[in-house]
Amino acid sequence: MDISAHLRSSKALLDLSGAAQVKGVWMGSTTLPCTYTPSEGFTQQTLTWSMERDLSTSTIFRRDSSGDHILLSRFRNRVSVPKSSPGDASLHITDLEIPDSGHYTCQVIWRSENYSLVTKEVTTMVKVAKVAVTKPVIVAGELGLAVPVGAKASLTCVAQGSPPITYRWFRAVPGRSGQLLGSEAELVWNSLQPSNVGMYYCEVQNRVNTGIVQRSDAVELTVRDLPVTTDAHRPATDLPEAAVTSENAVGYPETDETTQSSQRTHLYLIILIAVLGGAVVFLVIFAIACTRKPKNESIYEVAFHSTADVITLDTDVEVPVRCRKEKINSETEVSYENITMICNNYESTTDNSYESICLNKNAESETLVNAMESEYKVQNFQ
């Protein structure tokens, strides 16, 4: 197949598909179709949407290598073209106005591998009109109009027409006007009860033909009890069995066992904290008792040696000089027995009494030393 034949075949595949006419609803939205089948060897180079009205043509939208551009200010934030769907160049318009009526042209230009250009376009006429709201229809939820007690139920009011559409829900009351329940398109019960049984209807209205209200046919909502199952006829299931509370019949697990387990856990924690606190207090008291030093254990020792004797004190109280005895004998080696002088309760006595006690002890020590020297001399003389 030569190049010209290939181009003719590709051009046939690149034909645009659209709609001759599209009706739009005032304040609604609509889509103007413009599609083609992508062909190998051809790349979309530009896409433009233009509008012709009152013998004047204006470009609304343009897509090229630099991106998307909305060129008519009154269409900004109202028009869009799909980006992720190759071959789909449809124009989506929201918030339709009456002046949006006109002829819209979709034009696509492709570039081939040999840099030749192929141009195709399709035109669609758009007519925007204000549409009065239609008679609404009530659509029941998933469970229908006979709903188990305690289950969630809903009724939806569906109507067509130019937005905005206002909704009102009523419950029929015999001999009187209906009871107003809500102003949304959907009426919902989170937990249906027997007191909700009754006849319901909705009313709709829009800005077209103001004052005209459309009413739906009434529907009857009923509540049915859940079937009572016995152990013999209970269906097998892998789910855990749940107790049914008194609030509704849907079934929620009771929490008595969980509450008791939580209370026991709190009690164990309190006991553990009390035991640890008692142990800490006991250790503190024991440490204080071990580090405390009795006052009556202070001992003074006076040792007599052949060299300078040493006085050892357990406290910082200065011992009077007369309590110390020094004896130095460098010529002979004399071995004396250590004499220990203990001055007890010195902290509670006055300085005078303390000195007298120490002098008495000192006199006794000198007498003992003199006796030992005499004995030593007698032995040497013999």
TrEMBL record:
PROSITE patterns recorded: IG_LIKE (PS50835)
Keyword tags: Membrane, Transmembrane, Transmembrane helix
Domain Ig-like residue range list: 28-123, 136-220
Transmembrane segments: 267-290
Domain of life: Eukaryota
Pfam assignment, any one: V-set
InterPro entries: Ig-like_dom, Ig-like_dom_sf, Ig-like_fold, Ig_sub, Ig_sub2, Ig_V-set, VSIG4
GO biological process: negative regulation of interleukin-2 production; negative regulation of macrophage activation; negative regulation of T cell proliferation
Protein name: V-set and immunoglobulin domain containing 4
